Each structure stands twice: as C-alpha cells, then as structure tokens.
Amino acid sequence: MATTTIPEEIIASLATNWGLLTPLDAGHLHFDVGWVDRKQLRATNVNAQIIVSGPIASPIRYFGSDLGVAPGTLLPGLVLMSFHRYVVNVWVPIPPGDETDTWRDYAEQIRYEVVRILNEERTNFTCTKIAFEIPLDEGVAHHEMDASPRILRYEITFQVNHVS
Predict the structure, then answer these.
(1) Which of 24-28, 33-37, 131-135, 148-152 has the highest mean pLDDT?
(2) Mean pLDDT of the chain
(3) What values do phi and psi take at 106, rounded to 5?
(4) Is the dihedral of CA 119, 120, 125, 128 positive or negative?
(5) Which residues contact 42 (CB under 8 A, 6 or more apart)?
(6) Mean of the pLDDT values across residues 60-73?
(7) Cα separation of 68 and 75, whole Å?
(8) Element (H, E) at 93
(9) Is 138 left (phi over 0), alpha (psi -120 to 50) or beta?
(10) Does the reported pTM lie above 0.85?
C-alpha cells in the first residue's frame, strides 16, 4: 500500500476544495507536486500552476534547559527542535503582449485561495496530524519577467509541526 506524502495530500486538498470561478476554476489550473512544468504553463487551457514541494531543510534550534542540572554544569540539557517546511508555488504565466494587470490580479486571487484552503483544512489531513504555521505575508513574490512567457510566481512557505 502506497503512503501518501504530505505534499500529495496538500495538493489533493487544494484541488478538491478549490473555490474560485472561471477562469481560475480547478479545470483551468494544473495542480502537482515537485516543480513547475514550463510546457504545461504554455498549454492553452492552463491559466496557472499550483505546485507543492518539500520538506525543505529547516534550521535546527537548540534550547538550553537547566531543569535538574547542578549549577556550574558545562552542558545543561539541550532540547532540539526541528520543523518541516513546505512550499506552495503559484505560477501564473502572462500571455505575450498582455500589459494589463489582469494576470497579477489572478496571481493574488490564487495565493489567497491557497492560504484559505490551508487554514480551513489544516486539521483534516490524514497522512499525519499536523499543525500549520502560515506567515502573515501570505506569500513572497518571485516574478520571472525575463522568462518566456513572463511568469508571476508567489511562494508560500509554511511550517508543519508533527503533533501526536
């Protein structure tokens, strides 16, 4: 029996719970795990790609604990905390010659929809019990205006804390 990964479960949840209407409905988007498929971005019926990847390396934090440790002890107890981080990339190609703000507005709508679904569905994932921490900025712009086609990209990084 194949195990569902966290990115696979998140992408399935995004596709299932997608609430935007045409031209940003689920039928006009490509949901996947991994990284962007530039050929798919050029497909005429695809207005955007939503890609989930991870886990990515996260900083390991050490916290000292002096509970039960005699004064002057060189190495008080250390508590190790490491969190798994995942990324949702929203890729929106701008059609050649289009100089309107339409596609930027689409990218904004898509990233807000991704965050809405993650917040609403965060307790419904079955592959593991997880708690999300989504940054308040709800995404960082990494637009690729020199690419062909020009691409708007938002990166939404969130942390997954495994809880029992």
Answers:
(1) 24-28
(2) 76
(3) -60, -45
(4) positive
(5) 93, 149
(6) 50
(7) 12
(8) strand 84-94
(9) left
(10) no
Residues 6+ apart with CB under 8 A from 159: 58, 83, 84, 85, 132, 133
CA distance 67 to 79: 11
Place of tokens 């990515």: 56
Pair of tokens at residue 115: 């965050």
**CB-based burial of residue 39 (10 Å sphere; 0-12 exposed, 13-18 middle, 19+ buried)?**
exposed
**Separation CA 154–CA 158 (nearest Å):** 13
Cis-peptide, bond into residue 149, ω within 30° of zero: yes
Residues 6+ apart with CB under 8 A from 39: none
In this prediction, residues 41-55 reach a mean pLDDT of: 83
**Is the peptide bond preceding residue 55 cis, with omega within 30 degrees of 0?**
yes
| Greater pLDDT, 149 or 30 | 30
Going by pLDDT thresholds of 50, 70 and 90, the confidence category of residue 63 is low
The percent of the chain in helix, strand and coil, each rounded to the nearest 5, is 25, 35, 40
